[in-house]
Amino acid sequence: MNVSTNPFDDDKLKEECGIFGILGHKDAAALAALGLHALQHRGQEAAGIVAFDGAQFHTHRAVGLVGDNFGDEKIIAGLRGDSAIGHTRYATSGGTILRNIQPLFAEFEFGGFALGHNGNLTNADALRRGLVKRGSIFQSTTDTEVIIHLMAQAQGDFVTRLIAALNQVEGAYSLTCIAKDTIIAVRDPRGVRPLVLGKLDDAWIFTSETCALDIIGATYVRDLAAGEMVILDRSGIRSLMPFRPEKKRFCVFEYIYFARPDSVMEGVSVYEARKRIGAELSRESGVAADLVVPVPDSGVPAGLGYAQESGIPFDLGIIRNHYVGRTFIEPTDHIRHLGVKLKHNANRAGLTGKRVILVDDSIVRGTTSKKIVEMVRQAGATEVHMRISSPPTTHSCFFGVDTPERSQLLAANYDVPAMAKLIGVDSLAFISMDGLYRAMGERGRDKANPQFCDACFSGEYPIRLTDVEERGDRPAQASLLEIA
Predict the structure, then answer these.
(1) Burial grade of 332 (CB within 10 A; 0-12, 13-18, 19 or more)
(2) 17 catalytic per annotation
(3) CB-based contacts of 170: which residues, under 8 Å, 6+ apart?
(4) pLDDT by residue (tens digit) across 79-125?
(5) Is the bond preceding residue 7 a cis peptide, omega within 30 degrees?
(6) Which residues does residue 178 pair with via DSSP β-bridges, in sequence order?
């Protein structure tokens, strides 16, 4: 008997984490839990909240979904205080064990301090080795703990120590921190991962996405700037820019897939961006067909844009089951092969005798795409064409996304015709890099100075990959942009 945590082989890139922080509300922990509910798509393996009541810190962290961990009123009641930070996790650094669940908490000379991190540090291994040699004793295997130990070896108050620590790290990070009556949020100098500021009555809020503001009735104020640190305490709010300025490189895959479609990022509606990407995809790679069918749920906005631009009817030819648990017993190879139908099933009545265009956001290993195409053909489709609303994913991400090794990425090993044959479609096309940038309001991709981080498509990493380089397993054919 084989036990799998992913029976239907959910062949998608996984965003690492969602973060939330609030100061100045009597129901801080409850609001943090609601905010994490809205951010559940960013991490489904574990969740935690740390609250402060003016005298003591209170924490609850556990493996599992937000609702399972914070649905008990007694747990929320125990998280006393009018300030709190929360974190929902999908592990990219360290395993999903209790000691790795964030927010991480430590006692310093100045008092308690907790930290939640969305992103990934690319020199964490090198820093960790140096810290251990100098006597640091690590309690977790996550890269985030490096920041705690760097702060411990610095001098000054917690803000000064945090700045000193972050000036030593490389990589992508959006952070929420809590220390006594203060909440701090920080975004890395290239602004790779998202972070926004909101307000609810007299309370201030930091969170990864605006959808977490919507769920609690808060008002969006603004995105934090790349390299910005915002400090909230009883005296008000202040902003610092404590790092060397860098060219902003926000992750373009947030618009394609990671973010919830009802969020607004960097002033851009994610839903509208995905529709524009679908429209551009239609202009670039139109094909005669009877139906445009999205692969739910992430392919729906791009599918709508494709259908509207092409004039081909849009239909829900695949129905998604939203009630699939994350653990399943797979007794035989035959049952394991049927696992994809736990999540998706063809709407046979709408597909029989039709030429179908399937629209999806990406192809990673290609395993799920192959199964979906087989399912649509078995439902009676006479032709199956696949259109992908991202360029081919040819490189691994090192900035906070769980990506397979490059050897497992289909587009890193096969050209488009070969991928089409492997997946079993009549034709396959991806949006071009210039088309993606046009959909995002640019004239095209400036090869000398790209507007976004698109390393998973281009192999051009805007931040040094120190740990990967030192291990000697840097992805073949990847190129590193010169750091300004």
Answers:
(1) exposed
(2) yes
(3) 121, 122, 123, 463, 464, 466
(4) 999 999 999 987 555 555 788 999 999 999 999 999 999 999 999 99
(5) no
(6) 114, 183
CA distance 193 to 250: 6
Q: Residue 373 above 80 pLDDT?
A: yes
| Cα 420 to Cα 213, 300, 325, 385, 425, distances in angstroms | 41, 21, 31, 9, 5
Q: Which of 107, 28, 34 is nearest to 66 (CA)?
A: 34
CA angle 162, 113, 165 (to 5 degrees): 20
Q: Please report the pLDDT score of residue 2 as a whole number.
A: 29
CB 411 within 8 A of CB 392: yes
167 confidence band (pLDDT: 50, 70, 90): very high
In 3D, which of 219, 312, 294 has the Cα closest to residue 257? 294
CB-side neighbour CA atoms (13 Å) of 363: 30
Q: Tokens 């009018």 sit at which residue?
A: 82
Q: How far apart are CA 118 and CA 452, in angstroms?
A: 18
Of 223, 224, 222, whose CA–CA distance to 242 is shortest?
Answer: 224
Backbone angles phi, psi at 373, to 5 degrees: -60, -45
- Please tell me the distance from the alpha carbon of residue 306 to that of residue 293, in angstroms, as a whole number: 10
420: its two tokens = 């089409």
Query: Exactly one of 17, 177, 251, 453 is catalytic; which is it?
Result: 17
Taking all residues of the chain, what is their mean pLDDT, rounded to a whole number? 90
3 state SS for 136-161: CCCCCCCCCHHHHHHHHCCCCCHHHH
* C-alpha distance across the termini of the chain, in Å: 53
